[in-house]
Every structure is written in structure tokens, then in C-alpha cells.
Amino acid sequence: MPRFVKSVARLVAGAALAIPFIAAADFPERPVKIVVAFAPGTGSDVMARLVANDMGPLIGGTVIVDNRPGGGGIVGTESVARSPADGYTITLGTTSTLVTNPALNPLAKYTAEKDFTPIAGLSKAWYILVVANTPEAPKDFKELVARLKAGPTNFGSSGQGTITHLASEMFLYRMGVKNSQHIPYKGSSQSMTDVAGGQVLFVSDTVAAALPLIRGGKLRPIFVTSPERLATLPDVPTTKELGYEDLRAHAWLVLMAPAGTPTPVVAKLSDAAMKAMRTDSMKEKLKAQELESMVMDSKQLGDFIKAEAPYWNNFIKQSGIKVEQ
């Protein structure tokens, strides 16, 4: 090969290798968007806004939240999977959007492993089961189970295939109840409003989503899935206390980018997210929302998701649960 051609080839190769690093150095040149696949007011939305506020200054730019609810989280999540892999559109991923929806719903045309690159782990949220705070609604766990077995009944969730749906299905499966109809909503705020109004018997959701209406006297908590009682709800028993330790549903909240996002860009976002999550002020905000810190880097998060998937996938297979199309 002529010397001139070799030199040009080396220059082209060197330039190609340098592109990701140049991109990372210049990144971000416009706002970074965190897509939340659920409505405002959900646990995912709360977490996204907390981390977005603190990540902006750390990456030298602006981070905004874009709510795209629908399809139990599929609509917003898939939109990110099909977005340009440049780091400007990422998602606040959850157990349901990344694990259970692809396993349960044929409308989910993506997988976490194939279509996403892990950025960072953020937090996890334990679940709570609530009913209306009215004289007619069940007063405790025993009354709820009796009402369910007397059936037929119904229950709400923030969407098909979400952990708010599957946590309730797991509870019903464990109680041997087969005649409770699932009523999916487009977000926690709608399902919470309807359970408070008596349109559905119960709802399972994150503590953060239910807490405002519990404090407002509209909802009655029946149990929490956390290992220990919560400081903010000390009178609410755990599933372990009730004799059902295996009912340990919880949701984790993470940041994911489209597959193929340059490694240096992912590293910059990951570093900012982890720094944001480790501040004392963030720890206090998490505590106020009953969220537990779950800080992980990109590799740790990828390994974590692979290890977590079998818990839900096995339940889906054993129960034979299906989503209505």
C-alpha cells in the first residue's frame, strides 16, 4: 500500500476512534430528556424529577422529564428504545417496563438486554395495598381476604403488566382468589382516585404514590411489602408479620439509554446520576418518599437486571397470568 494511502487510513481510523470521546467532551449541547413511561405523580415520576434536578449541574446542562404514559409503560419505554443512541433521550426504567412487560405483553417489542444500555441504578420502592377509608371498605387484611373470597370483586392498577398490577395478582394468587377483575388505568393517580371513591376494591402501588391520599384520610393501608414496618406508617403491618413473607413485591428505578449509546456518554450520565443519588439532601428526599437508595454503575445494573428477571418471570409462568389486548 502506498505510503500516502497508509497515512490517510491511519488518520481516518484515528478520527473514528476519537469521535465518541469528542462527543462526550461536548455532551450535552442541548437538554437531556428522561422519559417516564407513566403519568405525573407516580413513583417513577417522583424519582425522575428528583434525579433530573441534581444531574443537570453535574453534566453541565439541563435534564428535563417527559411523561409518556400508555400501554402499562410500553409506549414511553419503546419510544426510547427507538430513539437516537446519543444520550439525549433516556428513560427512567422500572421492574415492569424492563422485565415484566417484555415477558408478559406481546405488544412490548423490546427487551432490556437487546434494546437498552444500563446507565445507573437509583432506588427501589416497596409496595403497599390500600382500600378506601370508608365504613364499607375492609378494615384489615382478614376482612379484605374474606371479601375477596366472597367475590366477585375488582382491583385497579396503573396499567397492564406493571408491578402495581402484578403485585396484586401475586397477592390474589397466594390467597387462592380467582374471581377478582383487573381494571387497568393510565397511571397511579387515576387508580388511587377510583379506589378512594369505591369504584375498585383495592390497589397495590408504591408508598410514594399512595401516601398523599393516606395522609389525607382518603385511603386505608392494609399492608406493606417491606421487610420491616415503615417509619412513616408505623401502624401498618408487613406481609411478613401476616405470615406471607413471599409476598415481597417491590419496584426498582433505574436509568437506561438506547442500545449503542457511546460508552463515554453513558459513563458521564452514570457518574452524574450516582453523584446525585449519594448526596445527603437526596438521601433525605428518598426517605421522605419511602424510597431506598440502590446506587449502581452501568455494569452493576446490567448484572442486577439479569439476576432479578427470574423472580417475576417464574411467577408469570406459574400463575398463567395473561394481559388483555
TrEMBL record:
The keyword Signal applies. InterPro entries: BUG, Bug_dom1. Residues 1-25 form the signal peptide. Keywords: Signal. Belongs to the UPF0065 (bug) family. This is Tripartite-type tricarboxylate transporter receptor subunit TctC.
